[in-house]
Design brief:
nine-stranded mixed β-sheet
């Protein structure tokens, strides 16, 4: 069968379809799929729409029907070959009689990891990999990280003034950013598995940490609170039976405080380790074991600094207001031990800058050295 002249563009369409599943399919990967006839006509397309639902390949095959026989499939991730919540996609592809499958990238999930490709090849189907591979891996970065390292994708978010302050010298921080920026934050929250803050931020700001209006996911609200000192009258505790709250404590947290929080509907997780960095690493590992894919960090500066020191920040969303606060005592977004040499400083890879009214919105992923 002759090669399609626009394979890169076709795969780009499959990857764009995959993005429709963002926030709906995690911890599964976002996947998009197209089936093309011999003249390049689209016979079927689909994407993984909801966790536990049909995969992208099945959706596209359903649309193509009998026309799929002898056709070419473009799919952004290697088809699965194991039974999970749905049957193997490789079986459906083989039954449909496809002649060729073009795959952007291999699935790192241990039960797939090249085995899906081999199953197709063993059935006599021509398989090509690598078209649009980098673009697919960029889209799948949170899934790939969770699968290969066992920890969630960590997204740092903050709002600051033009001179890098997140509050005045007296601690006032509402509101540094404008309404458009805050609406963007709510959309970001709506696709998160968890949102995390430190105890000082929880007590000082008394936030809800919910998405308004709601998004496709309901994030677990996490507070790092070594001594379980989160007030029972706080907004987080008061709404713990409606939206999950997890308070991560240390081994010295008073038992009566832990019981009081649990009686209010809060999950209390006692983390091992004498040092905060040890407990933070343990928490990230636990969240990974629970298959939480995307974790949003909303402050404060000490928590963000600890994550920076641990090289655990994967993505940044910064909202910069055109305001000046000044003041030596006015806090900045990130504290911690800090980076000692400029050459070692993490930086955003191809950052995106947007104007949101009077604010500048800068976001991008951290480039690893």
């Amino acid at each position: 069968m002759p090669d399609h002249p626009d394979t890169t563009q076709i795969m780009a369409r499959a990857i764009a379809l995959a993005r429709n599943g963002e926030g709906h399919v995690e911890p599964n990967p976002m996947v998009g799929c197209l089936i093309l006839g011999s003249h390049g006509e689209v016979l079927g397309e689909g994407w993984h729409q909801v966790y536990g639902g049909p995969h992208a390949e099945v959706e596209a095959l359903r649309m193509a029907g009998d026309r799929a026989r002898g056709a070419t499939m473009f799919v952004s991730l290697e088809p699965c070959c194991h039974t999970g919540k749905t049957p193997p996609c490789t079986d459906a592809i083989i039954r449909a009689g496809l002649a060729r499958v073009v795959i952007a990238t291999v699935d790192p999930f241990p039960q797939v990891a090249g085995q899906g490709i081999r199953a197709l090849q063993n059935a006599g189907i021509s398989v090509q990999t690598g078209i649009g591979g980098q673009e697919a891996r960029d889209l799948l970065a949170p899934y790939i990280q969770l699968t290969t390292t066992g920890r969630p994708w960590v997204i740092a978010k903050w709002a600051m003034t033009l001179d890098g302050k997140i509050a005045t010298c007296l601690g006032e921080s509402r509101w540094i950013s404008n309404e458009a920026s805050r609406a963007m934050v709510h959309r970001l929250r709506g696709r998160m598995d968890a949102i995390m803050i430190g105890r000082k931020t929880a007590c000082g700001d008394n936030p809800m940490l919910t998405a308004r209006p709601p998004g496709p996911r309901i994030a677990t609200r996490i507070v790092l609170d070594t001594q379980a000192a989160l007030p029972l009258h706080s907004n987080l505790v008061r709404t713990a039976r409606e939206v999950p709250v997890l308070v991560a404590t240390g081994p010295t947290a008073p038992e009566d405080r832990c019981r009081a929080l649990e009686n209010a509907g809060v999950e209390v997780l006692c983390l091992p380790g004498e040092q905060p960095a040890e407990r933070l690493a343990a928490l990230l590992g636990t969240l990974g074991q629970r298959r939480l894919t995307n974790l949003l960090i909303e402050g404060g500066s000490q928590l963000l600094g600890s994550l920076l020191d641990a090289s655990a920040i994967d993505e940044v969303h910064a909202f910069v207001a055109g305001k000046l606060l000044g003041g030596v005592a006015a806090p900045s977004p990130v504290s911690g031990a800090g980076i000692h040499r400029l050459a070692e400083a993490p930086q955003l890879d191809q950052p995106i800058c947007e104007i949101l009214g009077s604010d500048l919105y800068i976001h991008g992923r951290i480039r690893r050295h």
